[in-house]
Specification:
This is Hint domain-containing protein. The protein is mainly beta and about 375 residues long. Helix content is about 15%, strand content about 40%. The strands form 9 sheets. Strands 2, 3, 6, 8, 9, 11 and 13 form a 7-stranded antiparallel beta sheet that branches. A 5-stranded antiparallel beta sheet has the order 1-15-7-12-10.
Length: about 375
C-alpha cells in the first residue's frame, strides 16, 4: 500500500511515490479555498476561520493529478456534520483522460459524481472513499455555493494494498511451526540468511466483511499447497496481494543474473493454484519486523518480512509507525537507506518472469531451504 500525504501536497504542491509495479508516480495537487495544515501536523483542514467559528460560505476544492493512471485509491473525509449555522457536504469526481470513473462512498451516493450532505444536527461522521480506477485525476469539493459549511479533515490517501501475512499462517521458529497470531516480540524465527533472529515488532490489522466488499483489492491471494513447486507451500497460504514471495529458479537466473528474486503474490496469480480468494469474508493481516529485511518461512515457503522502506512504513497506521520509529529511530534520519534482502524486478519484468515459468513448465521454487 502506497500512502499519499495531504500535508505534503499542501506544503509542496506535489509528491512522488512508487507504485506496486515499481514505477515512480508524481501526484500534483491544486488547492482552492481555505485549506491549512493542522496544528498537530497530522492532517489538513478546510474552512478554518476564528471569525466564523470554523464555517465558510464559499466552496473549497482540491484536485489531484497523477502522472500515471492509478488504481485502488482510498481516503477518508473526517468531521462531516451539521449544526445551527452550517451543513457539510461534498462532491467527488474522478476521471481517466477526461472520461468519468465511478467513485464508491460509504455514507453518500456513489457514481461518477459521488455526493453526500450531512443531516441536520448529526454527530461528526467519517466518510470512506474508494476509487478502484484506473484514473488519473480526482476533484473533491467541500460545500456548495449559497450555504455555509464547516471544516473537514484530510489525513492521508492510500494506493494499493496491505503487505502482510494472515492469521493462521504457520511461521517456522526455534520451537517449530507457530501460528503467526501467537508470536510476540523477542520470539526467535528461522530466517534463510541469518539463522534464528528475534522479532523486533509485530503488528496486525483486521478487515471486516464490509471493508472487503467495499474494496476487493484488500482480499488475499491464496497459494494452494504445492502450487509453487517442490511441495511448497506445505499448506494453503493466504497473503496480501502485494506481499512478496521468493522465486528461486534457473529462469530467474537467466533473466536477472541471480536465481532468487522477490515477486508480489498478485503477480503469481497467472500460475495454476494461485488466485485471489473472494470467498474470504473477513481477515486479519500481520506484519513481522526484524532488524533488517529478512526471508522467513511461512507454511514452509520463503517469503519476506516487513520492509522499512518509506512507502512501506507509510502504509501502516500512525500508531504502528510511531512504535517502529521508537525501536528504530535511525529510520527517520535523512540519510537512512533500507536494504531489500533480494532484488525486486520492475512490474513488466515480473510478468515476463512468471510467463516464462509457465511456458517452460518450470516451478518457481526449485528448493525451499538454502
Amino acid at each position: 500500500m502506497v500512502q499519499i500525504s495531504f500535508q505534503t501536497l499542501l506544503a509542496n504542491g506535489s509528491q512522488t511515490i512508487t507504485d506496486a509495479d515499481g514505477d515512480e508516480v508524481t501526484v500534483t495537487a491544486t488547492f482552492n479555498g481555505g485549506f491549512i495544515p493542522s496544528s498537530s501536523g497530522s492532517h489538513i483542514l478546510s474552512d478554518w476561520s476564528w471569525r466564523t467559528r470554523g464555517i465558510d460560505l464559499d466552496p473549497d476544492s482540491f484536485t489531484l493529478s497523477f502522472s500515471k493512471p492509478v488504481k485502488d485509491f482510498t481516503f477518508e473525509i473526517n468531521d462531516l456534520n451539521s449544526g445551527s449555522f452550517w451543513q457539510d457536504s461534498y462532491e467527488i469526481e474522478a476521471n481517466l483522460d477526461g472520461a468519468p470513473v465511478v467513485t464508491d462512498v460509504a455514507l453518500g451516493t456513489s457514481g461518477t459524481s459521488a455526493t453526500y450532505t450531512s443531516s441536520a444536527g448529526n454527530s461528526p461522521e467519517t466518510e470512506s472513499v474508494t476509487v478502484q480506477g484506473p484514473f488519473n485525476e480526482i476533484t473533491v469539493t467541500s460545500g456548495a455555493a449559497g450555504g455555509y459549511h464547516g471544516y473537514l479533515f484530510f489525513d492521508t490517501a492510500d494506493i494499493g494494498n496491505v503487505v502482510c501475512l494472515t492469521a493462521g499462517t504457520l511461521i517456522e521458529t526455534k520451537n517449530g511451526p507457530v501460528e503467526i497470531e501467537h508470536l510476540s516480540s523477542g520470539d526467535l524465527v528461522v530466517t534463510k540468511d541469518n539463522g534464528l533472529l528475534p522479532i523486533r515488532w509485530i503488528g496486525k490489522k483486521k478487515l471486516s466483511k464490509p471493508q472487503l466488499e467495499k474494496n476487493e483489492k484488500l482480499r488475499p491471494v491464496r497459494i494452494q499447497a504445492g502450487a509453487l513447486g517442490n511441495d511448497q507451500p506445505q499448506r494453503d497460504l493466504l497473503v496480501s496481494r502485494q506481499h512478496r514471495m521468493l522465486v528461486d529458479s534457473k529462469v530467474s537466473e537467466r533473466m536477472f543474473g541471480r536465481p532468487e528474486v522477490l515477486v508480489p503474490a498478485i503477480k503469481l496469480t497467472a500460475l495454476p493454484g494461485v488466485f485471489v480468494d473472494d470467498t474470504v469474508e473477513e481477515i486479519e493481516y500481520f506484519h513481522i519486523l526484524f532488524d533488517t529485511h529478512e526471508i522467513i518461512y511461512a507454511e514452509g515457503t520463503p517469503t519476506e518480512s516487513l520492509f522499512t522502506g518509506e512507502e512501506a512504513l507509510r502504509s501502516l497506521p500512525p500508531e504502528s509507525r510511531e512504535e517502529i520509529l521508537a525501536i528504530f529511530p535511525e529510520i527517520s534520519e535523512i540519510d537512512y537507506t533500507p536494504r531489500l534482502s533480494r532484488f525486486v524486478p520492475e512490474g513488466k519484468l515480473q510478468k515476463q518472469l512468471v510467463a516464462r515459468h509457465l511456458k517452460n513448465n518450470t516451478p518457481v521454487l526449485r528448493s525451499c531451504r538454502a
